[in-house]
Fold these 4 entries.
Entry 1:
Amino acid sequence: MSDPFQTALQHQQAGRLNQAAEIYQNMLRGNPQQPDVLHQFGLLHHQAGRPAEGVKYIQRAIALQPGQTAYLNNAALLFIAAGQAKEAVRAAEQALALDPTAADAANNLGLAQAMLGNPAAAEAAYRQAMRLRAGFIEAQFNLANLLREGGAHAAAAVEYRQLLERQPQFIGARINLGVALELSGDLDGAIAAYTEAARQQPDLALAHLNLGLAFQKRHRFREAIAALQTALKHDAGLVAAHMAIGQSARELGDSATATAAFQAAAKLAPELPEVQEALSALLSGAIPGWHFPMLADMARNDAFQAALEKAITPETVVLDIGTGSGLLAMMAARAGAKRVIACEAHPLIAGTAREIVAANGYADRIQVIAKRSTELDLATDMGGVADLVVAEVLDAGLIGEGMLPTSRDALKRLAKAGAKIIPASAQVVAQIVTLPQQRQVNPLRSLSGFDLSAFDKFRNRSAHGNVRLDHEAHTVLSEILPVQRIDFANPPDWTRPQCLAWSAPITRAGTAQALVFWFELWLDEAIMLSTGPGGAMRHWGQAVCWLPADRTVQPGDALDFRVTLADTYIDFTAL
């Protein structure tokens, strides 16, 4: 006659969980004090996705035989799966107390400590597990992940590479190696890791997605699109792939492919503001209407000239990013700069800037390069680092033109350590208002007795619109309130958007319809330009975020918002 316990084990190992469960239950009905049966029945619950239920059976087994290391170790494993990290730590420590050579228990202790937010204790436990068992792949993988998540990207890459030497087909480690290398700034190494992962497992969408995103960061846009399209063949629901295809196609000037990609992303994730922003920005056109008013803004021009004259000496090398007409580059040269490198991404605008520079007699000191600043080569284009960076890469919402990634890259690669940047910083402020006239078309519904709602699709529904409160009928319902200060000399990295809670106390009764925000731009520690109502820098106007519905408010009320801070936008969502 066969042993029921062995029969149940065979079912369990073969994945026939219902048959195994029936045998275990029958055995426990006959004798509930069977620790091995209780232990295996607990593991079966874990296999079935019920770790919290399963650990109860393992605890009963431990009560019957408290000296079983395997019971304690598996209890720790199930506690981890159930999200009960403190209980997992206790079980793993008890297992190690019984058997100091229990490598699996040390690994589980590391997992539990990591869940509790104790990275030092987790790292110590993983390293203990690796000492106890030479070549313990799982523990080393967990250690590498811990180091990567803690920001020690180079150290993580070392661990990934070591375990891949022993197990080169470990796709998860290969992809995570790519992530660690990418985060440490080694894009070429990351591309190599993702390429190998895609070669080893061609149907793994994640490998192609990460490869495409890395190509995109490297500005290898055609290769990015090819890799991302391969990712979508294996997983058509990857919003990030559609978005990156759209962004890469836009960089290549392929508006048709970009539009189709952004529309696909919007269909998959209509709730994501960055998706709607990308599509709306593309559909609404890329030619700014503010450029000539900006050039005519004499308060802005005079302030930049004053800041440049303070910062420049006869030995100063200046990098002017997004030179446009070349105005600020010529101001720098007139202020006495030794040399000015002015870059402009649009070839036609760059060519015109060269003509203007030559016509004004500065061709011997100003070099105009038809590239983005992120494409400049320090040796061949710059001829050495800059002493001063000028980057008025701004819009009404402050950072929509890419000021943060642009300044991060320029200060890291193209400027000397401690180089100044103009502008130096900005303070974002906001206010709650009523805007009755503009509310009629935000969103567009009915006008003059006609339903025009279908026309609303042409409205730019990006993170914010524009308004000039000096010229618009409005009612102020709150004080001007600070939101966020940004130091361009030490620009934040908001590649992954950050969120903060923000509240606006109401000071006047009325109908809240919009949040209007603007910024105070500090060119240096003394020269400030405001884009607010009545401010000196008038060409930008103010940015407006519309409330989804009008709200009647009274003094003492407060409107709460979630502020999203991203590399290229600031957005306010009413709560």
Note: Residues 4-250 form a domain with the Serine Threonine Protein Phosphatase 5, Tetratricopeptide repeat fold (CATH 1.25.40.10).
Entry 2:
Amino acid sequence: MSARRTVGRLGAAARLTGVRALAAAAAGLDSAVGGRSTAALPAGAEIVALAAMHRFRARVDAARRRVPGLRLDRHGIPHVFGTGVDVWRGLGFATAAARLFQMDLVRRRAAGRSSELLGPDLAEQDARQRPLGFACYAERIVAALSADQRQMLDAYAEGVNQLLRAAVPWEYAVLGRAPEPWRPADSVLVVQDLFQQLTDPAVDSLEAAFADAPVPHGRGTGLTGEPLTDAVAADRLRAALRGARGGGAPVPPEPAVGSNGWVLAADRTAVGGPLLANDIHLPLGSPGPLFFVRLTVDARPAHGFALPGVPALVAGANADVSWGLTRLCGRTARRLPAAAAPLLCDRTEELAGTNRTVRVRLAVAGPVLPDGSVLRWTALDPEAVDFGLARLVTARSVPEACEIARTSGAPPTSLLVADAAGRTGWAPAGRLLAADSEKLVPAADVPQVLDPDSGLLVAANQDLGVLLPDGSPVTVNAYPDARARRITALLDSRRDWRPAGLFGVQYDADAAFFRPWAELFARHAHSRPRARAALLAWDGTAGTGARGLHLLALAHDLARQEILAPLSASSSGTPGLTPPSLSGLDDELAELVREEDPSLLPAGHTSWPAFLSWCVEAADRYLTQILGPNAADLPWGRVNRARLRHPLAGRLPRLARLIEPPGTPLAGCTQSVSVAAGGFGAAMRMVADPAAGTLWANWPGGQTADPLDPGHRALLADWVGGRARRLPLPAEPSTVTEPDRTGAP
């Protein structure tokens, strides 16, 4: 294998395992919040920025007083109250006042227009994105919305534009640009951007590798805590690899995915009712990806986390119900024949500020891919994208909340819910494709689970063991069950849970997922004695003091890429798509490696021991190159650090410390309950007591993108240190209270 090929694969793997965090600034890696330029502006730009910050803050404070039904506490948490339409208008203003630049970046990223604002460094990203046609399909989705949802989006956009008429965020003064007005279709673009993060459009190509049978799910832990076993998963993986010998590109590195959620029935808690926990993991930035808000809609209070740009709470509570969401690995895409649907457009578009053009061919059913096929993707379907989840704010019971989820269009997620009456439940939110056609599963056929006998519901991106009426699984190509297995084991260890204990579970850093690989690599790493010693010394966790994990994780991802290369989907070169990862079969993969079957040996290697030794040596050499001669001995916290990037920090180096917090050591890895990988991690952590309507929560940084606001980094220390804030339901508008600061819930 060539050195260039090895370094390329290691670089891809390292970006997701967190070990390139120390080199991120030098490498100029893209920010998770939509693009990052390292080209510094003249020194005067810092003066312009500071003046714009002061000007924006003064004008926003004045304009806020003219918004009916809007209050703001000292931490930047808004409380919006009134009728439904008035609340959404006020929420639009409050969100734009804190996050407009972030909202703009997301809509541009989805539409393939980032380079227009941030410069030609992002032209390549736009060139990949534009052919998906999100902007065109967003308009079609808006046109198909119900009257009440359209009214909600119109009101939200009015609130955003009310802010824009009063003040322009400081970032635009630095860039010398004016922000565009917000439109209802822009809220759809924000939802579509989340689709792109949470769904897997290439999974149907992977299914073809398994002879038209479902992708095996391997060993797992189901939704209600029961063990799942696919007895033939290893056999089918072995057969698929043998059948695909002789070609294929590397599969992608182990993805950074990590949302967790669980519900405990009353007989498992010490509070006299159920408890719900949710930690949504997303790409992180400065500010964070979610926005905490308080709402009182028609005299009914609620609070929780909103996605900036979208009038809905993705997780939260009202006086009756608490809810949370995690990613559901469901079937959302299928490739259709070239003549599957008439074309909406076939045109060439220029990327602004460059001499590049891209061809955009869009059919009614979806974008036309380079091979002529059509991508049928729920992210682009008016029947699968809407804003029905906004009704959770006023839901009164678990069955009502589950029905809202089953009939709403959204990126496929698991809704976990508990209510003040003591009921618990789960239902998929978002529409799924049927297993044998391009049609959507009818809402009436979408399953739900209410009040399970186990008293436990756990959704951590694993195979859930839930079937559709036709016998096909709800989940496909799910992620490893290591987190679900660990969460279930911890929750089963006692039956007197309180919110403080559940918050501790969310910060668990056990990394036993890697244990089989540590043994395999250490057995054959004699050519690298220091690396072998680090593997043997690893303590089995992703704690900040754990040694050897960065080497182990990188060698593991390199081994996966090489072994599974024959199964890679033929989607290289397809805009916006990457091959599925098959990460849910990691236990089975380790089993095949232990067998040392020569017919499965990756090309270019002479034996399995030599291959495993090569993985360790290549990983060690790479780490030594970027971290120094003692790389193998470094603790995990030295290489796994929070990187809350602001896209303008590189242009304003003298203000970088003001607008972007310094890297902080983080416990957790891609396969621990607390998922942490540099620019990816918990966008929020929340524990809810439905009977009390109270949340305990934290989130990275603070509420606002204004570096001069006291709330800019108000919660960063809590998020890193595992502390929570107690957040009661909103009080009457005339007596809005401050959140109580507590060391533990």
Note: The two ends are 53 Å apart (CA to CA).
Entry 3:
Amino acid sequence: MEPDSNGYRSSYRRLATLVVVLSLALVPLSGLGAAQQASAAGNQSYVAVQGEECTPITAFSDNESAIEYYDYRLPENFSDNPYVNATGTSFSSEGTTDLQAPNTSNVFLYTDTANDSAYLVFVHGAVDNESADGGVATFNVTGLPEDGNWTVRDDDYDANTSTDNWTVTNTTSTVDWDWDEEATDGGVYSGIDNDTNVTIEPAFNEDAEMYGSADGVVESWQVLSNDSDNVTRTDLELNETLQISAGTCDDVDADDTDTDTDDTDTDTDDTDDTDTDTDEPATVNFEDQESDGTTVTVDNVTVPEDGYVAIHNDSLLDGDAVGSVIGVSEYLEAGTYDNLTVELFDVPGAEFDESELTENGTLIAMPHEETTGDESYDFVSSNGTDDGPYTDGGEAVTDDADITVGNDTDENETDETAAVTFDDQETDGTSVTVQNVTVPEDGHVAIHNDTLLDGDAVGSVIGVSEYLEAGDYEDIEVELFDVPGAEFDESELTESATLIAMPHEETTDDESYDFVSSNGTDDGPYTDGGEAVTDDADVTVVNDTDENETETPADDTPTDTPEDDTPTDTPADDTPTDTPADDTPTDTPADDTSTDTPADDTPTDTPADDTPVDDGTPTDTPADDTPTDTPADDTPADDTPTDTPADDTPTDTPADDTPTDDGTPTDTPADDTPTDTPADDTPADDTPTDTPADDTPEDDDEATPTDDGGTASPAGTAGE
């Protein structure tokens, strides 16, 4: 069988449509196959049975495949669709136009004489017929050949305009069709042979799943037969089940006689009777509940005859009556039962990939009758033929319940619930701190990353605490990326992120965190009100590099900049030292001695100061320094204004003459000239006033009246 390939299938929950899926076991027409022939499928006799009406049908035939015969057309961009015969824009069958009728649904058989194979064909509507208004239909088809498949699906193509729903499982298919005016829908199923016994449960117009999506109304449902190349059309009831089977109507009559006999015996001997619509119908009450995943409890069930109560999952709503059975009770004698426990995933004839429910969901309780007398539930192993469900008014007796799956952690929802506090924090990436956690029973506190929010409960675990006995804990440090059963590509957080703290219970009593290694089965989270107890925190990753960034070299930079040293050596600093007040005491022998030391010359004899020394001009180039030390400069400078015997004695010593001849830095005209007037003391000494022209008159004028110590005149003389 092919799998369901339609991505647009909607949820189909009409329990009323289950009757055809389930009635296969209730009213089987096993006699229809009694007259099996050894002839090929193309020569096989078939009948269509609805209610008490039986219609022989003969297949239409041609020397071409079913795909070519149906001739389903789609535009060129769907040319790779496996059901298309040729490109076209009709989205319809163009090979069955002679059989189509407006506002009518047809069912018939087709035989490919080239390989002598037979097919079951459905065609709704009429292409390019102005009287065709479109329509909707839902068919539940059961008993399909296991080695067959849907050779054509009209319409089933990959686009959002494809609204048909195809649900295909094993021998059962549920199809929702929706076709527009002057168009068709339908399908072709292969594998029809002399064992065929197909049941079709129709739902048209307002009873169809897609009612309202098309404007038209289906007015007629017909079964077609090829009689001597003439089409025989038999009208069917729109709301009654139809069976297509190999055999003849005589076989049906014989089977009806046998059935009547069986019914009589049943009424007399209280033996098996598939028609359980008796004075005391079956009932079931199945309430919403919590489960550990291995069992559920049916609150009340009544079986008029011996039987069982089966538990189906919600695939039953998609038409899978057999595959949906996931649990069944023990054999029940006729009677009423309360609080009946049904074990899950232990059904005779069924195989399961799981042993318990792991997710919440809707389950359906359904009473089944014991029809074979072996006190064993054979519904699954017989593929729905035996031990079918009880019905009431033609519909299966059912009740559904929402099942909440929990494990031992649900027991922690007691007076003392688990709690956790996880505050925003900084981390070096290797661990985090949970501020507070309460575990009512022994357990752990796990750290999940934000993939938990996407539903990845197991893969999101990136850290777990040590084993915690029941109690309250504060400031629990949890190491990251060291989780039993987990593998990581990293060893620490490298980026800031949101993490989630979650208390987990120790459910296996091994004091080891097994949640990851058991894929979420063991050591699950504590819950409160059905939800896991959690708290999240924004975790900022900080490493040594981040901390060092606070001690930038910017602190040292300003203290060592040349700017600090520069102002200390500016001419402005040196200038004040040459004020007349300073000069006066420096002429004493004591002052000359100290001011002529190299230490004094260094700060005051800046290039700006030295420049004017030779000429009496404050800004002469360093070349002027050379003549200031010549004997010619020393002699007049020292002798003329200041060479009193007292002054000569200390200043003419060889020690004094060697560096600067009598205190050059303090007694030079360069020092005296700018300090006598405030204008000269300004830092602009060098630029506007230090031209030779300025120095010459100013030195001559100032030498006489000022108290410079008489140095102006000799300097002027030397300059001249």
Note: The domain at 283-406 is CATH 2.60.40 (Immunoglobulin-like).
Entry 4:
Amino acid sequence: MNEIIKELQELFLKEAKSSPMLLSDLASMETYIAESYQERSIIELLQNADDALSNRFFIKKVKESIIVANDGRKFTADDVMAICRSGSSTKKRRGVTIGYRGIGFKSVVNLADRVHIISSDIALTFSRQLTSNLMQEDLKVPLIRIPHDYTPIEDHEKVISELLEDNFNTIFIFEQLKQDNLDNEVEYFDSSSLLFLRRTKQVEFDTNFSKLINVNRKNNGNYNFVTIIEDGIKENWLVYRKKSNEAEAIAFLVDENMTLVPLEAHRSVVHSFMPTKDNVGLPVKINGDFSTDPSRTKVTYDDSTKSSMEECCKLIVEIINYHMRNPEYHGLFDILSKKEESVYSKFSTTQKFKESFIQLLRNSLDKSKWFYNRRDGKDYCSERLKANPEWLNESDFLDFCTDIDCIPLGKQYESIYPGFLKFSETYGVKILTIEEALQNTINRSPTINGGIEVLTEIIKKYRFHLESIKEDLNKAKIIKFSEEGFLSLNELNGREEIDSEYYEGLKIKLNDFNDLTYMFKTLNSPLNIKEYNSLYEHKNHTNSIMHSNTESKLNYTLSTKTQNNESNNKVLKFNSTLQKWRSVEVNLVSFLQLDESIDKVVDVSKSNLGYDIEIYRGSDKEYIEVKSVERIGGTISITNNEYSTANEFKEKYILAIASQTNEGLEVCFIKDPLNNLDLIKRVTRWEWICDSYEGELNFFRF
């Protein structure tokens, strides 16, 4: 018998005989640990291998045994002692190694009834039967406690020799298998469990379920680009760490277009190097030096966990700032906006990890200068930022923010950082209020659209309590007059006439024009509203607003090269990414990317900007709103938001009416739709509809 094994056996046997009840208690504790670690034996063995500086990890079924091997450092006497003792370990916390309790190896009790370890000069066996023989009494004994000389049931010498020749240094042999447990673990093993390991590069399973997993880690300075290939299927990840020796890390899944994509809920879990069952609250993976329960499947909320959570939040803030300076990957802000709320937690006193984490992230953003302003090259915190309200056009929003010394988060950020505006709103960036806009118009005249929008929003919000803002409203310059331009109500003498363009625009915006009359009456205004033939007398709940000459229609060309130029009806065939199962917006983006006259195409359809696609031609920028119909010629409708945006961008705004079939995508492009379509305002839904239109017709075949 090896001297190390002999000494340890004598030590623990003496202890057991002097206190057999303690040995029995250790057996019960081992059973509890094994049950807690159910279906995590492979994970624990992987952790041990990675701590031992292993690059390769191998599991093979041989006859009725399972062989596990790694090429890490060889076992020492201290390692054997740590395995034999409960709650003891040679590992340390704070990111140097993974485990720290010394009880994880006892999870292998779920795999087999007899376990052998072969490493360097050490060859030992753990067996309840052999321990009971030594004790010489009928007593419940643990599997992993008293080591024995290597005593296999089967002959494994050939396999051991082959593994040692293949430079594996430590071999575990499991005999008298509980086969179902291992098969389940191998079948459902998630290769992303390897993300936060330090060194493991290859994992191979050769059991009833075979898998080969290779991990490649490439350091790109601020992050590691990790590629995991499982049986030929590849996943790419960005893994951010503050420092290479720190535990805290954030991992984002990356698709084939190098865009960060959200994880499914069951995969977006907290890792304490290996995965727990706690959800992050965001569709990413995070790793930290989190305390866990004995099973290592649930995070426990203590000082160490809180400290690690705070460090992870600080890391996300750094990632945001870095990404704003170097937007090489899209999708970050979309992902960070998809926070998951727990309904259960609202009715429970139990503290959920994800709720605590999201709140800590909010706090970190509030305290940090996370926003990088590309205009002046400076960083700003949330309190210096303002988001654009839906009711206000971009031009006036930018002017108002300049006057109140705030950094405006305009629509341009959405094309650079998709999802940015929703992210800003989600994490507490304040929206410009109507009160702030009203104050601004006391000293600054807005545009016509801006004046209409401010007045309309005032009526909407303060319809029944105008007295509360009467002073500011009387001083604000939000109404344009035919000769005098913008004047405040205090400056009126009763002879002024509202500008006709302003008046028509106001009628379009207001749901009920009587609200305007009521406001002027309440404020005792001398305003003389010019009487037009009322277009706001509701009949059958509809109005008609005519725009431009119906005989003047537009043929708009996207400069698509085609050999068929005989008419405006074009059929274009491309070997492209167009797919009939994808959405109309996505397929149209794919087509536009093939147009040689277009430099850049950005899909912003999820951002509620009043349009779906931005296209760039040199310094020119155009905005496309996609309307899906069953057939070209079908009725379309546009919302008030889309109407306002079209009114703002005019000739830069393009309506793309699209019909998608199994054969292809047919699109009618209409430029400046407000001036080139007959629109009817449908009062019941407050949207603009059109049942006839002319434009350039294109057909893109799948």
Note: The longest strand covers residues 210-219.
